[in-house]
Specification:
three-stranded mixed β-sheet; 113 residues; elongated; alpha+beta; hypothetical protein PF0899 fold
C-alpha cells in the first residue's frame, strides 16, 4: 500500500510548512490528485485515518480535487479526456499521446493558525 507512504509524505510537508509559518495547527489541507496518479482513493482514506493520529493533521479538514485526465494526440493534435494511459485517440485511433493533466499528486494549499 503505497498510499500510506504518500500520506506520511503529506504529513511531513504540512509539518514543514506549518513550522516555517510559526503555526501549530493546520486547519485545512487541499490536495490535487489526478485520475491517472495511481492513487486508490479508498486506500488513501484508510491510510489517512490511521496515519494522521497524533500529528499536526489529526483535526485538519481535508479537501481533495480530482483532476480528470486529458491528453493530446501527437498525430492529429486532438485533445480529449482519457480513462487509462493506453487509451487511443477517439479521432484518429492512434496511441501516441501527450498527457496534459491527470497525473497530479500535490499539496495545493494549507490553511494554518
Amino acid at each position: 500500500m503505497h498510499e500510506l507512504s504518500i500520506v506520511m509524505s503529506i504529513i511531513g510537508i504540512a509539518g514543514e510548512q506549518a513550522k516555517q509559518a510559526n503555526a501549530t495547527i493546520v486547519d485545512e489541507i487541499e490536495l490535487d490528485i489526478g485520475t491517472l496518479s495511481g492513487i486508490e482513493m479508498n486506500a488513501l482514506d484508510f491510510a489517512w485515518d490511521q496515519a494522521v493520529k497524533q500529528t499536526i493533521l489529526e483535526n485538519t479538514e481535508r479537501k481533495i480535487n480530482r483532476i480528470e485526465a486529458k491528453a493530446k494526440c501527437l498525430d492529429c493534435e486532438a485533445e480529449f479526456n482519457i480513462q487509462h494511459l493506453y487509451d487511443a485517440c477517439p479521432v484518429c485511433g492512434e496511441h501516441f499521446l501527450n498527457i496534459l493533466q491527470g497525473k497530479e499528486l500535490r499539496v495545493k494549499s494549507l490553511v494554518v493558525s
